[in-house]
Every structure is written in C-alpha cells, then in structure tokens.
Amino acid sequence: MKIIGTQWKVTEKLKDLKSSNSNEDWQINYVTPVYGGWDLLVECFFNNLEDLDKIVSFCRTELELSQWIEATTTLISTKKNYPF
C-alpha cells in the first residue's frame, strides 16, 4: 500500500466487484488483508485473460485505488473449483 492502513478501504472497494457488461463474466470472489510481503489477497473468477486484465487495470487506475495501491502481483491458478 502507498498509504499505511488503507488495506481495509481497498478490501471494501473490491469486495463483491463484478462486471456490469453482459458480454463479460468476471467477479472478485474474496478479498482479505494479509501480513507479510503483500498487503492483500484478492481471489477472482474470469473466463479469459482479457477479463483478468480488466480487473487488474481497474485496481491500478480507479481514482481512489490508484492512490492507495503501489504495486500488484498477479498469480494465476489453472484449476477450476479447486477444493479447499
């Protein structure tokens, strides 16, 4: 985070975020602050890499988020519905 203590603001902004475009099928499933090298964990669902790009770009360019988020790291899992 660029500003210490904004992880909960980012969490609130991202939780339940989903596409409003009927041609897209993506959503953020889970967001939580974490301790360590990263500040947040965000789990999202998407059907293609273009949709993932929209999610990441939103996090980097949305007015408030761009003031709070310094950098993002994207990791992709290849298993659908992996059991927890």
Distance between the termini: 28 Å
The level of helicity is: 25-40%
The rough form would be described as: globular
Strand order of the largest sheet: 1-2
**Structure classification:** alpha+beta
- Count up the helices: 3
Would you tell me the overall average pLDDT?
A: 87
Sequence stretches where pLDDT stays below 50 over 5 or more residues:
none
Radius of gyration, rounded?
13 Å
Number of separate strands: 2
Specify the oligomeric state. Answer: single chain
Largest sheet: 2 strands, antiparallel
Q: How many domains make up the coordinates?
A: 1
Q: What is the percentage of strand-forming residues?
A: 15-25%
Order of helices and strands: HEEHH
Could you explain how this protein is built, in words?
The protein has one domain. It is globular. The chain has a two-stranded antiparallel sheet with strand order 1-2. By secondary structure, it is an alpha+beta fold. It is built from three helices and two strands, in the order αββαα. 32% of the residues lie in helices and 15% in strands. The termini are far apart.
